[in-house]
Amino acid sequence: MKIAIIGATGYGGVELLRFLQYHPFVHVQSVHSSSQEGTALSAVYPHLQQAESSMLEKIDVEQISKTSDIVFLATPPGVSSELTPRFYECGVKVIDLSGDFRIKEGHVYEQWYKRTAPPQTYLEKAVYGLSEWNRAEVNDAKIIANPGCYPTATLLGLAPLVQNGLIKEDSIVIDAKSGVSGAGRHVSLNTHFSETNENVKIYKVNEHQHIPEIEQMLLKWNEQIKPITFSTHLIPMTRGIMATIYAQAKKELSAEMLVDLYKTSYESAKFVRIRERGNYPSTKEVYGSNYCDIGIAYDERTGRITVVSVIDNLVKGAAGQAIQNLNIMMGIEEDTGLQFMPVYP
Ligand SMILES: NC(=O)C1=CN([C@@H]2O[C@H](COP(=O)(O)OP(=O)(O)OC[C@H]3O[C@@H](n4cnc5c(N)ncnc54)[C@H](OP(=O)(O)O)[C@@H]3O)[C@@H](O)[C@H]2O)C=CC1
Ligand SMILES: CC(=O)N[C@@H](CCC(=O)OP(=O)(O)O)C(=O)O
What we know:
The protein is of the alpha/beta class and 345 residues long. It folds into two domains: 2-147 and 316-330, NAD(P)-binding Rossmann-like Domain (Rossmann fold); 150-313, 2-Layer Sandwich (Dihydrodipicolinate Reductase, domain 2), CATH 3.30.360. It contains twelve helices and 14 strands. It has a seven-stranded parallel beta sheet with strand order 3-2-1-4-5-7-6, with helices on both faces. The protein has a seven-stranded mixed beta sheet with strand order 9-10-8-11-14-13-12. Helix 4 (79-89) links the parallel strand 4 and strand 5 (93-96). Helix 1 crosses helix 12. The longest helix is centred in the last third of the chain and has 16 residues, at 315-330. The relative contact order is 0.14. The mean pLDDT is 97. Its EC number is 1.2.1.38.
């Protein structure tokens, strides 16, 4: 399978390249840039001395369509809205890391992203690539909307509770924290070293663009679900997301029952690891890997459930899940090219 990467100079793009270099069934045909055409990728990332297809090329949809079967878009919001319909019409499949095709209703996208939505006909063709829960749709897809980093951690953490109707529908609160690479490689005041080091910042309070994405999937699983409270924090580390999720149980439960439920729900999921009772994951335990680790607690005093879900934002939250979706589309083992243990310490 020949693939092209657009946005290869960004963190998501370079992470795709790290995994795809050694993927047994994929050849990286070309890497593309909108601003550094003709530059060697190793000049942008000196750690990539031996990378395949190492010269950055311009983004020419017709040309890419002649040489690649699948294109990954690791570009900012708005770019895929324009490029994806053109690739689709040329018969090239798209795996989009941005948020452009995740929200099914254009007006909802426009409200939260504050930009024009892609054409509705193409939104309808896109499949939401939450690999563990949408395998059959991903398998047939021509456009994959790869989930956001926070939604991946949150939805994998909430799925068993919401699908089984175990929680009060208006009680979901998500307190999420991200490392700074979640904001991409481009420079900004908010991600500047002296703004983030020794600091914890809450941001986009009640306005985060991932709120409608999370609610859309929760409602697909259980149409009684009410709006969520979702808070995001920037913390001084490079990679990692921890989503700590709280919800009120509808009836008396126990931690044992919940751990058993999660283990059963994710029995066939190669990348979701459920902790034993009383054991909670930290971000370093998934660093550099495609795992999502989940710990669950039940407070008998309050009847509240706490779920702790961690991922590496650049792997399971972006490039890793994108490759997992590519594998599902190709009909090969889901973990091909992704069998890495986390980097520790
Ligand atoms: N970082 C993360 O943890 C996650 C990111 N995402 C999403 O993935 C996408 C990529 O994110 P990330 O890699 O972090 O971002 P970066 O800012 O690191 O990289 C984005 C790349 O897009 C390219 N680009 C910028 N403008 C344009 C344009 N007009 N046309 C084509 N290419 C353009 C740039 O490369 P060049 O100038 O060379 O063209 C840039 O290197 C984003 O939509 C992001 O929201 C999703 C999940 C997690
Ligand atoms: C730390 C940080 O800034 N993270 C980004 C997540 C980026 C992302 O995944 O956004 P998309 O939905 O556009 O893909 C944020 O909170 O907006």
